[in-house]
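Researcher: I'd like a structural prediction for the single chain below. Treat it as a standalone chain; there are no partners to consider.
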Amino acid sequence: MVTAALQICIAYYLIMVIDYLSGWQCISRPIVVAPIAGLILGDFKTGIMMGAALESVFMGISAIGGSIPADGTTSSIIAVAFTLLTGAGMEEGLAIAMPIGTVMASLNGMLTPIWASLAAWWEKLATECNPRKFELMNFLVFLLQPLIGTVILFFAVAYGVEGLNAFLGSMPAWVLTGLGAASGMMLAVGFAILTSMIWSNEVGVFFFVGYVLVKYLGMGSLPIAILGIAIAVTMFFGEKRTIDLKNSLKETKTVSNDEEDFF
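Model: Treating it as a single chain, here is the predicted structure.
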């Protein structure tokens, strides 16, 4: 457990540092970190499957005003580690992801005042008009910030996974059945949150098209995704041609008005 936890934490730290320094390129998303955790623990396939499921849950969760409801990165890693290290089912691992993510987000929120207290120091560095020193201090903070989460993640994987497995093992069968049902509902809730953000009269019709393709035609996710990409590309270029035509008409009208003013 300790060796596996150490390997996972090193990967987590590098991912977070790279994501911070590159301006958050989404490599800390569950769909990326879960397969990496699965690869480290020797089951890449399970990591991919859980990463896709966890991304479906967390894709609708975003930071609003600096408040993050749940930490999808650490919870995804812990969920994959719990599933692979204890031999538990993916349903149980997915079901515990959201509670763990909420706890981790709360712990990260407790550290926010510490980082906010550095504002005066940053202002002092800015007034010194020394860009190199400012960039160096900024780089050091980027290296330091993920360390706390890394330490918490290490103890959670190394010593918390077995305790969590023993706790779930002592539960009645109906509790585990409920966890499996809850994990399935979480995927639906994640998609519902995302759909509510992008819903409009123009794209709403595709929701019902997808429902028909799955429910009545029995199509899988891959062919439906290919159809969706084809429709999205077609709509994109269609709207682009319309915008280009409007812009060209505006330019033509502007030129004609200028000519009339000249004569």
